[in-house]
């Protein structure tokens, strides 16, 4: 393909039969299918996910996102009594951090998605369980800037009253989501890292047994935290993808994970990212650290200013911050050597990331095969391993 066409939005479109969109998880996590794609040659082969133990090299360092999905969808009503639905677009722990106290209450300004809010006007108040919301500003696509008033913490409130925010392409009868509370979480999701409004879905295929087998084989396992925002489902709307404004997401990389990555890169051990969220975390924070060492990124956090002089890819004491890195063809990858990922929506920033990593032609050819071979697509669908 002509290089200029790689920046055209329509280049990332493809026709997907509706029946290929997975509505439910596989019977068992490890029973998902796995398409193995070689980056250099474009060759692919069909496997099941449990084959990943044999397919990954013995000395691989695997990095996974341990954020846990929070029930971020709430049902409420207007003063008139009509029903309204709220979906938080910002991770609840971050809302808690910035909330100001007013007596026994907390007040925070945040962005939400309101369903059934066509006539909601600035200044109108809405009632939700143990929370009052005041609309401040209406934005595109159902988004609103609001002020929320609540007690203590938003996290236990959502855990008590909220529903899981399943992706919009999963269409089932209400009340059929009991299984989702376990299957729309990775087995390694940490309660202390709850906050995502969408699952890091590439990790849904892992079982504890597969992780044990990988460690027994000689692989290493480390984790980071990226609170996945609802922006992950937002399509790219700019005809020239370079004009797309990427959403920002919060990342934490511990000292242990940072040091493991630094050591792996020095020794030549491949770093395998579980999912696009892990990929964006690694590449985004490495870029931020590089800019900080050049004095170009003062917002990047280092626990020790002397680390800015280190000859390493990450500060040894770890780091945290927001990343809005957008990876599309032409962008370089400095950390990730292999990628485990699901099949992504047409025209999404995620399929652009995968195309940047594995090559546009290779990826689109692999997707065509996956459609013909009846792979299951999107969040509850099957996976790819790209090395």
Automatic annotation (TrEMBL):
Coiled coil: none
Pathway where this protein functions: tRNA modification; tRNA-queuosine biosynthesis
UniProt keyword S-adenosyl-L-methionine present: yes
Keywords: Cytoplasm, Glycosyltransferase, Queuosine biosynthesis, S-adenosyl-L-methionine, Transferase
Pfam families in alphabetical order: Queuosine_synth
UniProt cross-references to InterPro entries, sorted A to Z: QueA, QueA_dom1, QueA_dom2, QueA_sf
Record's subcellular location: Cytoplasm
Reactions catalysed: 7-aminomethyl-7-carbaguanosine(34) in tRNA + S-adenosyl-L-methionine = epoxyqueuosine(34) in tRNA + adenine + L-methionine + 2 H(+)
GO MF assignments: S-adenosylmethionine:tRNA ribosyltransferase-isomerase activity
Top-rank EC class of the record's enzyme: transferase
Enzyme Commission number(s) of this protein: 2.4.99.17
Record family assignment: Belongs to the QueA family.
Oligomer status and interactors: Monomer.
Function: Transfers and isomerizes the ribose moiety from AdoMet to the 7-aminomethyl group of 7-deazaguanine (preQ1-tRNA) to give epoxyqueuosine (oQ-tRNA).
Name the UniProt record assigns to this protein: S-adenosylmethionine:tRNA ribosyltransferase-isomerase
Lineage, broadest ranks: Bacteria, Pseudomonadati, Thermodesulfobacteriota, Desulfovibrionia, Desulfovibrionales
């Amino acid at each position: 393909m002509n290089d200029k066409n790689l920046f055209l939005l329509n280049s990332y479109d493809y026709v997907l039969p509706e029946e290929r969109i997975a509505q439910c998880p596989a019977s068992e996590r490890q029973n998902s299918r796995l398409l193995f794609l070689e980056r250099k040659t474009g060759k692919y082969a069909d496997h099941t996910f449990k084959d990943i133990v044999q397919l990954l090299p013995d000395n691989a360092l695997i990095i996974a996102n341990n954020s846990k999905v929070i029930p971020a969808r709430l049902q409420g009503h207007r003063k008139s009594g009509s029903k309204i639905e709220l979906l938080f677009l910002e991770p609840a722990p971050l809302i808690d951090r910035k909330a100001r106290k007013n007596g026994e209450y907390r007040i925070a300004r945040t962005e939400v998605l309101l369903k059934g809010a066509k006539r909601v006007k600035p200044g109108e108040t809405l009632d939700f369980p143990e929370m009052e919301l005041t609309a401040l500003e209406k934005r595109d696509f159902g988004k609103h800037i609001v002020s929320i008033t609540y007690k203590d913490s938003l996290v236990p409130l959502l855990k008590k009253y909220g529903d899981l925010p399943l992706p919009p392409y999963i269409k089932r009868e209400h009340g059929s989501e009991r299984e989702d509370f376990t299957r729309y979480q990775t087995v390694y999701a940490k309660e202390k890292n709850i906050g995502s409004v969408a699952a890091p879905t590439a990790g849904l295929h892992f079982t504890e047994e597969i992780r044990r087998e990988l460690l027994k084989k000689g692989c290493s396992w480390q984790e980071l935290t990226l609170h996945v925002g609802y922006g992950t489902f937002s399509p790219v709307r700019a005809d020239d993808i370079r004009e797309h404004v990427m959403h920002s997401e919060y990342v934490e990389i511990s000292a242990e994970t940072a040091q493991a990555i630094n050591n792996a890169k020095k020794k030549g051990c491949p770093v395998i990212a579980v999912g696009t969220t892990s990929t964006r975390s690694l590449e985004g924070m490495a870029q931020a650290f590089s800019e900080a060492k050049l004095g170009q990124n003062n917002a990047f956090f280092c626990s020790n200013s002397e680390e800015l002089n280190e000859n390493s890819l990450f500060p040894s004491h770890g780091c945290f911050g927001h990343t809005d890195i957008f990876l599309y063809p032409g962008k370089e990858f400095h950390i990730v050597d292999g990628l485990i990922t699901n099949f992504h929506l047409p025209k999404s920033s995620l399929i652009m990331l995968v195309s940047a990593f594995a090559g546009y032609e290779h990826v689109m050819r692999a997707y065509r095969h996956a459609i013909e071979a009846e792979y299951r697509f999107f969040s509850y669908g099957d996976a790819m391993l790209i090395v």
